[in-house]
Description:
single chain, 1 helix, 3% helix
Amino acid sequence: MVHRGRGLPAIGFATPEGAISAFSLPGRPRDLVGGPDGNIWFTYGGESVSPVSGEIKEFRDGLNQEGSIWDIAVRPGGYIWFTNPGANDVGRVSEQGEITEIGNGGLVEPRDITAGPDGNMWFTYWRGIGKVSLQGEVTSLREKIAPDSSPREIVSGPDGRLWFVSYGESAIPAIGRIIPGDDRPSPEQRPPYEPPGLSFTPGRLALPQPGARVSRRGKVVIRLACQSSSPCSGNILLTAYQRGWRARRLIGSTSYSIAAWGSVGVRIQVNRAGRKLLAQGDKATFTLETNPSTTDFPLNRQLKLRLAGR
């Protein structure tokens, strides 16, 4: 385990009985992995630590000092591979500490890295996925990855495929897979978690943007996304609540129909009472509720509505 919170940065281990031992470090570690030499390797600059003695060895010769090593992984055969997002490249280090960094000029902030079933090392970077051979040949893959999406973590699955997660500021989060030899990422399904900046229900209907502006005439467009292999459809209720009210009040409604894995902007007409509440500022809260007619789960999320011009 690594520690990089309050106090001195450290790397340590815990026994099954709960006893903890830690070794202080001069800088903040990020990731660690068990090496083929029996030591624990971690990313801080290019170090290993003996799990028996706690002796720490640093390896820096050949390391691009402009960057900062991020993720680390082991490839069968003796090499430790790492990503260096600050230098926009990936690299490897031998058990003896010999470092080689590799880039092709097109990598931007490589992050996660893992050993693939095809003998290559696979990694994610901003807006793409790449692979690097043992000989140092780098191949970049961008096909089928959304322009506004960025792959993050990647692992080698028990099915012989590589699986990754991908999300961005305006993209719908996705889980994707790669079949080595085909090398075409294909998003499979959208996970029910909440990456930064996005709000999701634990079902199949998503609200990518929790805020919207209402025109002076009461028209508002709410974007919904269908996280399912089958279409999503149903009715939408837009309600308001103000302190002192006994119940929420309906200020708009409509229906929706979204293709599988698709997203649409649903138009809702806010009634006069709703527009009056919006004109008063932040005195009311607004909620979007769905009544699905298909298998998608109901959505119940608070919305940040603003009147245009305010």
